[in-house]
Amino acid sequence: MPGTELFGKEEQKEIDDVMRTGILFRYNHDQLRAGIWKAKAFEAEVKNLTGARYAHAVSSGSAAVSAALASCGIGAGDEVIVPPFTYVATIEAVLLAGALPVFAEIDETLCLSAAGIEKALSPRTKAVCLVHMCGGMADMVSIMPLIQKHNLILVEDAGQAFGASYKGISVGLFGKAGCYSFDFFKIATAGEGGVLVTNEEKIYKLADAYCDHGHDHKGNNRGMEQHPVIGFNYRISELHAAIGTAQTRRVPEIIQRNRINKSLLTNLLSDLPDIAFSKLPDPDGDSATFLNLLLPDIPKAKATADQFDKAGLSGFNYWYINMYHFINQWNHIKQLKTAARLPIAITGTPQDYQNLALPKSQQVIGRLISFSIRCTWSREEIEHLADGIKYCMLNSLPG
Ligand SMILES: *Cc1c(COP(=O)(O)O)cnc(C)c1O
What we know:
The protein is α/β, with parallel strands linked by helices. The chain has helices at about 1-5, 10-20, 40-50, 60-70, 90-95, 115-120, 140-150, 200-210, 240-270, 300-310, 330-335, 345, 360-365, 380-395; strands spanning about 55-60, 80, 100-105, 125-130, 155, 165, 170, 175-180, 195-200, 290-295, 315, 370.
């Protein structure tokens, strides 16, 4: 959790600014707030870091995905290609939008592949929700031509890739809209929070209204503002935005430190037989929040994860069995267990969710073990971890 590793007086100062005025609400109250606008400051920091033309801060990364889908015109009955490896919020957002998730294959980038997307296309495909996983990025050079060729809408869930880029362009800015999460586990945290980015004014304005009950935010009489569209409350509070502002300023330093620590750990493991890593289409754009090991096969990966547990190693994820990140454990989605009926219950599912064949994704995630990189690690801690990983990998026999 790199963001929370560097928590200090900078965050405190931003919070104190808000507490002095007592204006916890992001809009209006121009006199009382004495020039303190933390949601706007947070958005400015995100624009500065990513190069986005527009940014809109919201209450969570999940809310940002919902707002992105809505603002891009993705809704009832639209087929949206999604990966089977993501935080489950991506799939929830598509379903709650009334749209229909179509699962496609990922590859060793841990993200949807162009081949996977192509295979999942149908005449009803409206959009692709591309998720940049584990601090890295998808292979944009092969994906973008496909998006253009088929005239698809690209929405990027960069929930766990804030600060990552592909050939100098921030992930989140390749499509119509992109999303970052600032929950407690991300490279920068606001406690809870998310940011939608876009280069299109029209998308930004729609998102701005959608996330605040349709308010057009014109004038200074909130109760008399126009409501061009139906929206909901996905607003961020000034307190959360204050923390997000301070944390976003730390991201360049966090990435720099992460990269040093990740490359040291990688080098220390390089003499292991059979060691392989996930593919980074642009290594220079890595936010380096994870070191992703690819074991030779699934039994070996399972045995190794067990060994890591037994040896008391912490900070790793074997996503294959994780309840929230991989489709194998999403029975509630496959069986459409909803609190109340969703449009998909009426239209029907675009695929047989109970019998999906995603052999490539199964192989990749079955072999994947990810270690969180800490930016505050000392050299000794990294060496100790590398020794632990080596010991376990050399001593784990499948079965
Ligand atoms: C964390 C995350 C989200 C959700 O963000 P929250 O802020 O927790 O709602 C969405 N997508 C991905 C890929 C994430 O990692």
